[in-house]
Amino acid sequence: MTTTRQSSARRRPPVRGAREPRTTRGRRSPAARARTGTGLTRRKAMRRRWVALLTVLTVAGLVYVLFFTSLLGVRSVEVVGADSVPAERVRDVADVPDRRAMLRVDTDAIAERVATLPGIATVDVSRSWPSTIEIAVTERSPIGFYNDGEELYLVDGGGLVYKKVAQRPKGLPELKLAEVGPDDPATRAATSVLRAIPAQLRERVRVVRAETPGSVEFTLAGGKVVRWGDAEQSERKAKVLAALLTRQGTTYDVSAPELPTVS
Fold this sequence. Notes:
Blueprint: H1 30-68, E1 76-80, H2 87-94, H3 107-115, E2 120-128, E3 132-139, E4 142-147, E5 152-156, E6 161-165, E7 174-176, H4 185-196, H5 199-202, E8 205-209, E9 216-220, E10 225-229, H6 234-244, E11 251-253, E12 261-262
Parallel strand pairs: 1-3, 7-8, 10-11
Antiparallel strand pairs: 2-3, 4-5, 5-6, 8-9, 9-10, 11-12
Helix pairs in contact: 2-3
Subcellular location: Membrane
Pfam families: FtsQ_DivIB_C, POTRA_1
GO biological process, one term: cell division
């Protein structure tokens, strides 16, 4: 009879309440994980600090280049719209600093200086990158001239006396008013009438008079006098006058266009 011996290595049943050993292969202890996490956090924080520093340095560099160097400085000044006023005269008065950083150029101050020129109505100054200052001007357009007894001056459509001339301008009527200026009611009425009448009729006007805003009258080439009245209903008055001028007479009154007269 064969006796089977039990191996001495036979496992014993686990003791109640005892914990089975856990393998630690491939796992790190909580302390190691904490040290690793802290290291990653520090590296991320350091990277962020470097990125922030580089950003600040980049912005500071751009500000320095844009505001304090001539790299993007003024190289040229372009004048647009100048005709009777020489462009070189506009540049001289504008006095734009050469090589000044574009962003440091005071465009408002330039516009104010150019606006002092006789004959300039409006000024617009802008930056044309990378290195040009553009000055766009609108010149005043004369609608008549004024004789103060000593000198002759051009007058624009707003009634502004803006430029002295040596002799009577061809094709412009003389404004014989007690006072000429944009704040004078009679001047405003007279210039409003001149702006409103047809160009063909305006070319025939030689003298404009007005003691009050409602008493505008003008003398045509050939000596005919037109009593216009105020600046209202100018289009209708012009049509009525065109019909009246076909009749013989020296004085044509269209101040009341519904009741015009010829005498």
